[in-house]
Amino acid sequence: MRVTKEQLENQVLMLNEFTGQPKEQYSKNENGEYKSNIGNYNIGWTYGGCKLEQIVNSGGGVREITYHRLTKRELYYVVQSMNNMLRSELDKNGKRLLLKDI
Q1: What is the pTM of this model?
Q2: What's the pLDDT tens digit per position in 7-20?
Q3: What string of H, E and C letters represents the secondary structure of the chain?
C-alpha cells in the first residue's frame, strides 16, 4: 500500500484531536498576523524524509517527537499506533481522555 501525504496528515490531525491540541499549525490573530499554535503536532519535511514534531513556543520552535527522519509509510504506522493507543483509552462514557486528564 502506498501511503500518501494526505493519509499521513490525516493521522496527525487525529493525533491533535485525541490530545486536545490545536489542529492548525498557525492561526491569524485580530491584527491579521499569524502566530504559532503551541502544542500542535505536525510533520516536518526535510531531506527527503519526515518527522513528527510539536510546536513548543510562539515563535514556531518545535521539538522532535520522532528523532530520526522516516519514510511516509514508517511515520504513518508510528502515528497510527499512537492513535490506536489513545483510542483504546476511552473512558466508560465514550468520552475521549485527554493527556492532560491522565
Answers
A1: 0.84
A2: 999 999 999 998 99
A3: CCCCHHHHHHHHHHHHHHHCCCCCCEEECCCCCEEECCCCEEEEEECCEEEEEEECCCCCCEEECCCCCECHHHHHHHHHHHHHHHHCCCCCCCCCCCHHHC
